[in-house]
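Whiteboard transcription, Tuesday session. T.W. wrote the structure tokens on the left side:
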């Protein structure tokens, strides 16, 4: 039985199960398949390797490079298509790599196998994404990892309620980044004094259909990365 969003009231569940127990269930469900993929990759490497001296020297260099690469903190960027996409995503990737992250851009569709998503997110140190349903995948992350949610105009309440609060309860280090009006694609459509830009709450008060049309379906993000 649940209470609030993506949370479990342990007192109402037999054995006082919590959201962490749910994560353990996911772990057991997916790791068998993931281990199978890992074994296949190792088999491919062994079959394609050559026992020559030069190959062994190359292997040592490759292993050293892999070791250095694996020492970098991992960052997953959830890539959206359509609305609420990060227009300058390539610049975000470049900046993150420059800082020292090993970056993985994760683009999801309806055919993406959940075990593959779990494999990526359960091994990452941080995930960043724009507010939307795909952020529920924070449940695949390890507790103490960092979740960064980019919050478009007009989505403050939903972002905090649906993902901010639950992710903290799950044990993640949550950071919400509220974009400035100039970082929204709406900035080029409306005047600076338009309430759509400077008073989203007044627009949302008109009803869900306005929120959905303007802020969820009609907005993209261009981050100020300078």
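and on the right, the sequence the group agreed on:
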């Amino acid at each position: 039985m649940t209470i609030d969003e993506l949370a479990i009231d342990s007192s109402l569940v037999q054995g006082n199960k919590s959201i962490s127990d749910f994560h353990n269930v996911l772990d057991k469900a997916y790791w068998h398949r993931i281990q199978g993929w890992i074994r296949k990759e190792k088999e491919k490497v062994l079959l394609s390797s050559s026992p020559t001296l030069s190959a062994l020297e190359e292997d040592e260099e490759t292993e050293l490079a892999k070791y250095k690469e694996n020492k970098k903190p991992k960052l997953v960027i959830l890539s959206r298509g359509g609305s609420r996409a990060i227009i300058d995503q390539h610049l975000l990737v470049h900046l993150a790599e420059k800082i020292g992250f090993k970056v993985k851009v994760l683009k999801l569709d309806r055919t993406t196998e959940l075990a593959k998503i779990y494999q990526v997110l359960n091994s990452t140190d941080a995930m960043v994404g724009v507010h939307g349903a795909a952020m529920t995948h924070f449940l695949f992350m390890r507790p103490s990892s960092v979740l960064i949610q980019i919050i478009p105009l007009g989505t403050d309440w939903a972002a905090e309620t649906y993902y901010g609060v639950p992710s903290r309860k799950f044990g993640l280090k949550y950071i919400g980044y509220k974009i400035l009006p100039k970082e929204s694609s709406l900035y080029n459509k409306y005047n600076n004094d338009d309430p759509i830009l400077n008073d989203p709450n007044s627009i949302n008060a008109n009803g869900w259909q306005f929120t959905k049309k303007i802020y969820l379906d009609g907005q993209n993000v261009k981050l100020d990365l300078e």
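Someone added at the bottom: The two ends are 45 Å apart (CA to CA).
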